[in-house]
Specification:
By secondary structure, this protein is α/β, with parallel strands linked by helices. Helix content is about 50%, strand content about 10%. The longest helix is centred in the first third of the chain and has 24 residues.
Length: about 675
């Protein structure tokens, strides 16, 4: 395991402070001496899941004309590296100029801290109109990269095609009416698995649909560049960068996220336009310098030499792959590229000459010592705390489902850190099983997931997440004995784990032993008051305890952390009715109705609440929507008759008579006592 050395941390802190100070200076100096109109328009295009060898003049099996056209007139970096092999951390590095150790995002599904300054914020402060068009939920606004973008065009879940994203970006460009310079970020997600290219690329690349996706994206890149340059008023600069690559089976990795070989870490990078020196750069560079380069192009750089516009920063390029460590407790992985020598630290060193051996097939570590600069950088690179990383995720089950639909499934618990932890490169035979089991679990296909989790636990006994998901799957299926057996194994492995307490508490909360869940969930919330899953469980426990006011307080806290789900709004409405908080109940049911549309089934409750609030027309409308098949239809007729009398409707008498004919044991007595009807 890598050691933690303070010097690298000091560098990170200094970098963050300098960025913040830069913002302060710019705020004080306005546009730093340049008029807004003189600043160039800037287009940043990020190609998700695109290997460096899948685009450009050297690509085999596909011709990327639009990318090649930029190469022909621009500056291409043939050895550019991602900071991490996952979408959100890689993009966060491009938007902050920091490695993941500096910005704190090591996996998808986390949220970028508000104190990390983003490049869009700096350009917006300098007078730029800023817009982003992202094609996947993994970059949704809630994850933090929207700050600084006046327009952030996102997808609510899943993904959308490059064509649709391009259409939206071009429409925005066409709507520009003033002379402000523009920063436009367009993200294409198509090359991500599953590979389903559109026509005509599906037929043309039937034998390699991944390249078909790349070709389809390149077509849209051409449209976008032409539209951007046609709309730009004055000078324009274009940058195209991959966020990470794709394994495609190399080193045993089908997709990405688990290993840090060049298949997933080396990315395409080219820039063209005003002030860009044309040519090819073969020395290694980090894609995190997209941040510095955009600032330089906009005239906001600090002159520290980190821009890629005219030179390549001479440095050891770093990158990390923390998902296996943070999710399963395997060895953390950090890479250092110094010239053509690439060193990977993951339990031990691997050394490759990527100039002579681009496929990293010959490990030279037994006979080669990594350079001094590489060793120092690897030793000083901070390894994140697994517990802290798990807590900062704090995703709702709905968010986990959306990420899982894209193939991204993170652990829900902090791993057990083991001295003898396996190396990710030695565990590739288990990756497919883990991905499949995790996906089934998030999609609630528990019966199919259980045997896979048993297989994972057998081959990797220290994998706490597998044991907890195994236990939770049994729990969801009502298999109490099997769930408790798996929880016992988890407690033996990690007796002090807050995650074991959490998931055991959630299990007990849905059984006859729900009272035993209270101290467990209370202990978790004492350690982390904002733990979303614990709050969800505690809300159910408080309700079962007959403490509706406290249950409502828990729902309030939870919904300050994330948006409420429709069924949760229904529950809040019911609890608010129980404590006679009419206004709150109305707001909750109205929110559920807006979210559910035609699926909303609580018109009776809403009609009764509107009547209590003397909102008679709204009560009439809600009660008229109650189906005759509803078990409370007799009550709906009674309340509707009351509304008819109060509104002096001409058919009020007929409605009273209908309520009498259809009365049940409850409403018969209410009708007999109702003085409105006697009149």
């Amino acid at each position: 395991m890598l050691n933690y050395f303070p010097p690298f941390r000091r560098l990170i802190v200094v970098a963050v402070v300098l960025v913040s100070a830069g913002c302060a200076r710019e705020n004080a100096q306005g546009t730093t001496g340049r008029t807004t109109a003189a600043r160039p328009w800037i287009l940043l295009v990020t190609l998700d899941t695109t290997r460096a060898d899948a685009v450009g003049p050297d690509a085999k099996g596909v011709e990327t004309k639009a990318f090649n056209a930029l190469v022909a007139r621009g500056r291409r970096f043939t050895r550019a590296y991602a900071a991490a092999p996952e979408t959100l951390p890689a993009h966060t590095s491009m938007m902050t100029g920091l490695y993941p150790a500096g910005h704190g995002i090591h996996e998808n599904g986390r949220a970028v801290s508000g104190d990390r300054v983003l490049v869009a914020e700096k350009l917006q402060q300098a007078g730029y109109d800023t817009a982003a068009f992202v094609s996947s939920f993994v970059l949704a606004k809630r994850f933090g990269l929207a700050r600084g973008f006046a327009t952030y065009d996102e997808v609510s879940e899943g993904e959308r095609s490059a064509k649709e994203t391009t259409d939206r970006a071009l429409a925005w460009l066409a709507s520009a009416t003033d002379d402000r310079p523009r920063l436009v970020w367009v993200h294409y997600f198509d090359a991500h698995a599953p590979y389903v290219p559109p026509a005509p690329y599906a037929a043309a690349f039937a034998g390699n649909p991944y390249l078909g996706e790349v070709a389809a994206v390149d077509e849209q890149l051409g449209r976008l560049v032409a539209g951007f340059e046609g709309a730009a008023k004055g000078r324009a600069v274009i940058m195209v960068a991959g966020d990470h690559g794709e394994g495609l089976g190399e080193h045993g990795e089908a997709q990405h996220g688990h290993l840090i070989y060049d298949a997933t870490m080396r990315v395409p990078l080219v820039m063209a336009g005003a002030g860009v020196t044309a040519g090819t750069v073969a020395s290694p560079v980090s894609a995190r310098h997209v941040f510095d380069t955009i600032l330089d192009v906009a005239g906001l750089g600090d002159g520290a030499g980190r821009s890629l516009r005219a030179s390549a920063p001479g440095e050891v390029v770093l990158g990390e792959g923390m998902k296996p460590y943070l999710d399963y407790g395997w060895q953390p992985q950090v890479m250092a590229v110094d010239g053509t020598q690439k060193t990977i630290s993951a339990g031990r060193f691997e050394v490759y000459d990527v100039g002579a051996d681009p496929g990293e097939t010959r490990d030279l570590a037994p006979a080669t010592t990594p350079s001094r600069q590489a060793r120092t950088a690897l030793q000083e690179y901070p390894i994140p705390s697994p517990g802290q990383a798990a807590r900062t995720a704090n995703l709702s089950e709905e968010d986990r489902r959306k990420l899982a639909s894209l193939g991204y499934v993170s652990a829900g618990s902090a791993p057990v850190v083991r001295k003898d932890a396996p190396r990710p490169a030695d565990m590739t035979g288990l990756l497919e099983t883990i991905e499949k089991a995790s996906g089934l679990f998030v999609r609630t296909e528990y019966a199919a997931a259980i045997p896979l989790f048993e297989r994972i636990a057998a081959k990797d006994p220290g994998n706490l997440d597998a044991l907890l998901r195994l236990a939770s799957a049994h729990s969801a299926l009502g298999r109490d004995a099997a769930a408790m057996s798996a929880f016992d194994r988890a407690r033996a492995l990690a007796p002090q784990s807050e995650d074991v307490k959490l998931y055991l508490g959630l299990h007990l909360a849905r059984t006859a032993r729900w009272a035993e869940a209270t101290p467990l969930l209370e202990a978790v919330l004492a350690a982390d008051p904002d733990r979303v899953a614990a709050l969800e469980g505690m809300a159910r426990v408080r309700e079962r305890q007959g403490r509706p006011q406290e249950a409502l307080a828990v729902w309030d806290q939870l919904h300050r952390l994330r948006a409420p789900l429709p069924l949760e709004l229904v529950k809040v409405g019911e609890l608010a009715m129980e404590v006679e908080d009419t206004d709150r109940a109305i707001r909750a049911f109205e929110g559920a109705r807006a979210a559910q549309g035609d699926a909303f089934r609580h018109h009776l409750e809403l009609g009764v609440l509107y009547l209590a609030a003397r909102r008679l027309e709204e009560s009439r409308e809600a009660l008229d929507r109650v189906s005759p098949q509803h078990p409370g239809y007799a009550m709906a007729l009674f309340k509707r008759a009351q509304v008819a009398v109060m509104l002096r409707e001409p058919d009020a008498a007929a409605r009273i008579e209908l309520a009498r004919r259809r009365a049940d044991g409850t409403t018969r007595e209410l009708i007999a006592r109702e003085r409105l009807f006697a009149r």
